[in-house]
Write the structure tokens for this entry.
Amino acid sequence: MSEPEESTDQPIEQPLKRSRTGWHGAAILIGVLIAILGFAIAVQVRQNSRSDALSGLREDDLIGILDNQNARADRLRQQISDLQQSLLRLQTSGDRDAAARQQAQQEAAALGVLLGTIPASGPGVTVVVTDPGDKLQAEDLLDIIEELRGAGAEAMQVDSVRVSTTTSFTDKDGAIVADGTVLRLPYMFVAIGDSTTLDTALNIPGGVAAAVRALGGQLTVLEKTKLTISVTRALPQSRYAKPTH
Amino acid sequence: MIAGLALIAGVVLGLITRPTVPTWLEPYLPIAVVAALDAVFGGVRARLDRIFDAKVFVVSFISNVLVAALIVFIGDKLGVGAQLSTAVVVVLGIRIFGNAAAIRRHLFRA
């Protein structure tokens, strides 16, 4: 597109000669050309407005757009796999956490029953000990507790005192005191465990039942299929011992 | 007159038949249309200057279209099709504006 061509625009206007010979043929030809132009304009305008933006683009632009889309799709796929991995990670760690929490709850419940911090229920025995001669000592009651514990009792109660690892029995003014509470006659024991085993352990020849009878008292064991110990103790605070991991 | 009627007839025909542009023609059709418009404006101006010649018009019309399409074609082959299309449209646009200005001076004496 140089200057000389710019001036070739003018040749359209320059020739002044009128070739009257083929005037009609030329008019028809011009009409056809103009009609083709109008046709092309209409087609192009319609094509441009109807079709989506992509169909009118050239190859280079389309390749660029395709590259962009591919890169974007790759990024999104990468993102999907990342998110799936983190989802998997979170799910597995969640499962582990749930299992650990469940186990911790079970341990807490078992320890709570042993320490007497939570109520307990289950099969067991009630033991009634009478002492008309007032001859029973604290250690005799301790023997009964030890016998029950040895026979597998998991939770015990004397009168209104929940028995745990720190429970003490002392003699005071002719009465027996358990953890600071004066026990009244007849002494009532409740123990949760295998009732038959507990019964057998208490009534074993030469056992605690025999010892009580030798002192003039009476020990009666009642096996129950369902007992509830609702008395609880405060959680003991260890002042010196710290857990080590 | 004939040209105006032919233009209207062509537009109506294009709207009625609704043809689809073949893919190979797609890059060239807009350029060809602009080139033909340039020729038409030149023809109108020549007519107003009373120097219109049918043969020159027909030849310039066809050659304009072919040269414009050829330039774009070569540009596509060389990898600069988009830029050359722009260049052709700019040049033809300038010419159309020049011819339109001449036509305006003729019609409105301004």
Remarks:
- Residues 112 and 118 of chain A are 5 Å apart (CA to CA).
- The mean pLDDT of chain A is 81.
- Chain A touches chain B at residues 1, 6, 9, 11-19, 22-23, 26-27, 29-44, 46-48, 55-56, 58-61 (CB under 8 Å).
